[in-house]
Amino acid sequence: MFFTTIILAVREIRRHLLRSFLTVLGIVIGVAAVVTMVTLGQGATAAVAEQISSLGANILQIRPGQGFGRGGGGAQAPDFAMEDVEAIEEQIAGVRAVAPQAQASALAVRNAANWQTTINGTTTQFFTAQQWQLESGRVWNDAEEQAGKAVCVIGNTVRQNLFRNDDPIGERFRIRDVACEVIGTLSARGQGGFQDQDDVVLMPIKAVQRRFSGNRDIRFIMVAVDDAYDTASVQSQIETLLRERRSIGPGEQDNFNIFDTRQISETLQGTTRILTAVMGAVAAVSLIVGGIGIMNIMLVSVTERTREVGIRLAIGAVASEVLMQFLVEAVVLACLGGLIGLLLALVVTFFLAPVIQVPFLFDPQINLIAFSVSALIGIVFGYFPARRAAALNPIDALRHE
After folding, report:
1. Residue range 97-117: average pLDDT?
2. Are residues 229 and 325 in the same domain?
3. Per the domain annotation, does 117 fall within a domain?
4. What is the pTM of this model?
5. Could you give the CA distance from residue 131 to residue 55 in angstroms, rounded to a whole number?
6. Burial state string for 233-265 with b = 16 or more CB within 10 A and e = fewer than 16
7. Which helix (H) or strand (E) holds 119?
8. Which domain holds residue 94?
9. Is residue 103, in this structure, part of any structural domain at all?
10. Sign of torsion over alpha carbons 9, 11, 16, 20
11. What mean pLDDT is reported for the chain?
């Protein structure tokens, strides 16, 4: 009986193809919009997580000043010293690696090629903290680090712009008036946060301090925390140590800040999820509009087929069978719209994801939920017209012209 009802519903839909298509258009747009927004939102969340994680796992970044800058309108916060780095390494439990960094921006030149890049002076612990593997070559040794020798490890962006297809290992290029020998190349990482991580030249920190910055100051410190330790606890210990070393009294604000990359990742992912939910909710409004469209057309269909309903009731059909016929017709329309909407969303997200540079993540759960909601809308908005058809008086229905 139910199978026959479905056949009758499909036959009635085929009789008015254009009207049926226009009826389900709201459902199609609603389902497609919801699935597209949620899928792209999940891709954006994954992209944010990947970019933040590429900065390193369990990393604390210590910078002078308050917030992301170096402070407000007051006195400029002092940079760190190598003694601060040594104190953190020796006195704080749970520290896996401590990498001081001194930075400068400079023009790198090789033959006719040149590239404006960032010179990052650090120690070999930087590679341990970042878990950044070399693509080729080696890192500098302790003797080269102590002597401040002009050797460097370059990122993929610098390699492509200065060396093109040449092997850079053993070659030299000029940074300002310093000739730097390339001893290694870093594996590609791409975007990390808001910058290209591969656009970097790594050198021993003493070489950068002597030849570029002209002082022994350390711009910021990167601390890698052991997985067995709580990052928040280690951060609290570092804050206490640095307040003591920088002579910050009780009640005074810190003139440094510590950023936990994991907390930043969680905050950004949470924000992205909220935005995705809001966009999905806004897009879901069109599903309600589509449901109203189905109700409207089904009421018109009941009016057009009043005589047909009267004949069925007169020859023995019960009201529940008539109700079921119209209800199934509404649900079939809604499900058809939901299916078309899912296919449309799949195509749109597949081609749009690379354009906005987020991964394409197919989520069966959101697709199943969207399809189920479309079927539910067919039931909710199709019940009133179906109930109206089932409540018709056979004699009055037969008299209807």
Report:
1. 88
2. no
3. yes
4. 0.60
5. 9
6. ebbebbbeebbebbeeeeeeeebbbbbbbbebb
7. strand 113-122
8. 79-254
9. yes
10. positive
11. 81
